[in-house]
Amino acid sequence: MTETQSLQTLMTELGAAARRAARALASVTTADKNRALRAISEALGRAEPELLAANAEDLAAARARGMEAAMLDRLTLTPKGIEQMADGVRQIAALPDPVGEISELVYRPTGIQVGKMRVPLGVVGIIYESRPNVTIDAAALCLKSGNATILRGGSEVAATNRALAAVIRAGLDDGGLPANAVQIVPTTDRAAVGMMLGMNQFIDVMIPRGGKGLVELVTAQARMPVIKHLDGVCHVFVDAQADLQKSVAVALNAKTHRYGVCNAMETLLVHAAVAESFLPMIAPFYAEKGVELRGCPRTQAILGTILGGGVVAATEADWHAEYLAPILAVRVVDSLDAAIDHIETYGSHHTDAIMTEDLATARRFLREVDSASVMVNASTRFADGFEYGLGAEIGISTDKIHARGPVGLQGLTSQKFIVLGDGHIRG
């Protein structure tokens, strides 16, 4: 047997096992799922030494390859991070189970009742990079929503994922759920990704989590539906009627709370009516935190004498950029219309916010900005499943069909029609 044939056999076995596990999960109760989730949470705490040792191995290899700081940050696992993962699993266990929920049940003139029942998607495939928490979040969310899952993390997180796989197995065993309800692809061979994308006979939906290249690859090659987002080019617009003190706090948090995350602000838009007041207020705070500003000509003119080194001239590419770094594009605009036009032209339909005290302006922004999350007087950093009360999220979708925004339990389910009768026949 060739190496390719051996890998194909492995992937086929994973897919078939996941399909069998998905059928078994259809009969388990909410109590069964919650018991297994609590067992996984407890296993995470017990396995902290092994998890940190495995993560240290991955970090050493990543540094040796010259991995960038933002990516190293995503890869790093700490005792606090392990506790947060365990807490996230416990929170998912405490959430209402969407599976089996019946809604929109109505009587038809014929006497039958027609409604909808929420059901699992089946088998979810997830291909992702770097972040160890994705492994646990994905496993827990898929289990609670009744889905089997096949996880394929990047090679940079291989040792950590092996350790997490052992934790998940222990939890599934303690909870009495099928052992193959969660499977982690046990190879770093890149060919496994291509094979996985062609396994539509086993996998019902694919979710990529990672850089733009990975998402584009999965979208182009997958033979099953994909839940995705490509970029997080997020904006904050400071309107003419904004409270400037609030705006400083929000715009600072949106950019500097964490840099390497998809809901960090990448472009700050400021209404011309307040630009000469607002920009000098916030620029020193960015300078203190080492944030490089790339501004339009009006931004440069306002801040040129305030900041010692001035402001770098923004290029067309800067308006499109998802920096994931301490760099911020800044543009002065003449109106709400101009701000919305900029967001529509350069944004990624992820998360955009307005700072304003004017209700009519806020309503227009909410209605006309076509993003998965639209905010008024709040940091873009709130665009997160945990902050939205979903427990954890499997990703943030910028798609418009099936799931949009943070994808939690409901996003991992679908609905089927149900019909209730009592011997009814169609005349």
Q: Which structural traits does this protein have?
A:
four-stranded parallel sheet, alpha/beta, 427 residues, 19% strand, seven-stranded parallel sheet, globular, 15 helices
The order of strands across the largest sheet is 10-9-11-8-7-12-13
- Straight-line distance between termini: 60 Å
What does the largest sheet look like? 7 strands, parallel
Q: How many strand elements?
A: 16
Helical amount:
40-55%
Task: Describe this entry's structure for a reader.
With 427 residues, the protein is an alpha/beta fold. 45% of the residues lie in helices and 19% in strands. The protein has 15 helices and 16 strands. It has helices spanning 3-25, 30-46, 48-64, 69-75, 79-94, 132-144, 158-175, 191-197, 212-221, 244-256, 272-288, 297-303, 316-320, 336-346, 359-368, and strands at residues 102-107, 113-120, 123-128, 148-152, 182-184, 205-209, 234-238, 265-271, 292-295, 312-313, 327-333, 351-355, 373-376, 396-397, 405-406, 413-420. The chain has a seven-stranded parallel β-sheet, sandwiched between helices. Helix 7 links the parallel strand 4 (148-152) and strand 5 (182-184). Helix 1 crosses helix 8 (191-197) and helix 10 packs across helix 11 (272-288). The longest helix has 23 residues, at 3-25. The chain starts with a helix and ends in a 7-residue tail after the last strand. The mean pLDDT is 93.
